[in-house]
């Protein structure tokens, strides 16, 4: 693995702290909340704005999708992968992404299915988790963007 997993995990942890501080009690992706929320978080003392949105699954009304979009500012990638979206198979996600795995387990359960996709052309990483119990989906997207200043 040549993607800087520690960096991705740290960015997510900074976002999680900001989200929990802003939404008291903690943000709950299992509650079907339709709509957008903007959360400003800081990484290396630089503010970034995340977009969090939830939508019901169009195929199954009892399931929902939540997407957390975080800024990567182009500093994540250490090596190039293929031009197409590539599924990266990893057997020990807990070692590489402990904060993200902990968050997924909290909301998707121990048996949640986790997948990571990297798209070089879009400079984007999607980490997806689906609960095998509820069918709810959480996606954390790292994509290019800019610092957020008011």
Largest sheet: 7 strands, mixed
Q: How many helices in DSSP terms?
A: 3
**N-to-C span:** 37 Å
Mean pLDDT: 76
Describe this structure in words.
The chain has 150 residues and is α+β, with helices and mostly antiparallel strands. It has three helices and seven strands. It has helices at 5-22, 93-96, 98-108, and strands at 35-43, 46-56, 64-71, 86-88, 113-119, 124-130, 137-143. The protein has a seven-stranded mixed sheet with strand order 1-2-3-7-6-5-4, covered by helices on one side. A hairpin with a 6-residue loop joins strand 6 (124-130) and strand 7. The termini are far apart. The relative contact order is 0.22.
Structural features:
single chain, 150 residues, alpha+beta, seven-stranded mixed beta sheet, 3 helices, 7 strands, globular
Q: How would the blueprint of this fold be written?
A:
Blueprint: H1 5-22, E1 35-43, E2 46-56, E3 64-71, E4 86-88, H2 93-96, H3 98-108, E5 113-119, E6 124-130, E7 137-143
Summarize this entry quickly.
The chain is of the alpha+beta class and 150 residues long. It is built from three helices and seven strands, in the order H-E-E-E-E-H-H-E-E-E.
